[in-house]
Specification:
268 residues; alpha+beta; Glutamine Phosphoribosylpyrophosphate, subunit 1, domain 1; 7-stranded antiparallel β-sheet; 14 strands; Gamma-glutamyl-hercynylcysteine sulfoxide hydrolase; glutamine amidotransferase
């Protein structure tokens, strides 16, 4: 129920990735081209980015639509980054959490976003509360499904799982508890991007000049955009993209992590 985008690569102004493209995230807030659920993403927005020499990202989030923020265009024009994660939100349920409910969520070096919805929330995921400590539950940043899914991912990361295993394990766990959940998750640490396609659209672009973009939908008509198959885990660096099939809910990930990769796409 949102649109999101992540980028790792050569330093760029935020606006070159979010505002200037003909169908960039800024425009997707009111006119997405490939959004299957919802039509307008006006319930908040956020962008997280990494400054040179600082591994901990900064964030700028607001509760309203991005087009109503008169400061964002100036910010996006002058701030440059080697990596970012940004999202515009169409809330599944209205709530009082304001900008706290807007992605990206953050912890340490990580930024996270969830495009989708969990049917039956919150009751459907009540059985998964036991996977979190009391402190984790009491520290939830917002009272929505995305914040809870982030808490599940973060618990796995802190327990030592790699990014891909943490996302894959969480998706399978949530999908088993809430059949029909849409779980397109997006995670970056400033050097890599990890994502899942589960119930909604996901695309990636290996840019000829260097860098990788992963997004809910293409931000322009470049023919090199590639659609990610549903039920797939994507891991990307600045030069390579690896796609791995996700197992069915109820299956158990092996100790080695995800199954054999489907394909590897080098940057052209």
């Amino acid at each position: 129920m949102c649109r999101h985008v992540a980028y790792v690569g050569p330093e760029e102004p935020l606006g070159a990735l979010l505002v200037e493209p003909a169908h960039g995230l800024y425009r997707q807030s009111w006119a997405p081209r490939r959004q299957r659920y919802g039509t307008v993403n006006a319930d908040g927005f956020g962008v997280g980015w990494y400054a040179q020499g600082d591994p901990v990202p900064a964030r700028y989030r607001r509760a309203g639509p991005v087009w109503a923020d008169l400061s964002f265009a100036d910010l996006a024009r002058v701030v440059r980054t080697r990596a970012l994660l940004a999202a515009v939100r169409d809330a599944t349920l209205s709530g009082a959490d304001a900008e706290a409910a807007a992605a990206p969520f953050a912890a340490g070096t990580w930024l996270f976003s969830h495009n989708g919805a969990v049917p039956g929330w919150p009751g459907s995921l009540a059985p998964l509360v036991g996977a979190l400590s009391a402190e984790d539950v009491l520290s939830l940043e917002a009272r929505n499904d995305s914040a809870f899914v982030w808490a599940l991912v973060l618990a796995r990361l802190r327990a030592g799982d790699g990014e891909g295993r943490a996302l894959a394990g969480t998706v399978l766990e949530v999908a088993a508890a809430a059949p029909g959940a849409r779980l397109n998750l997006l995670l970056t640490d400033g050097d890599t991007v990890t994502a899942t396609a589960w119930g909604d659209s996901l695309w990636y672009l290996s840019r000829p000049g260097g860098g990788t973009v992963v997004a809910s939908e293409p931000y322009d008509d470049d023919p090199h955009w590639c659609e990610v198959p549903d039920r797939t885990l994507l891991t990307a660096s600045r030069t390579d993209v690896l796609l791995t099939p996700l197992e069915e809910p109820g299956d158990v990930l092996t100790s080695a992590g995800a199954p054999a990769p489907r394909s590897k796409e080098p940057r052209s």
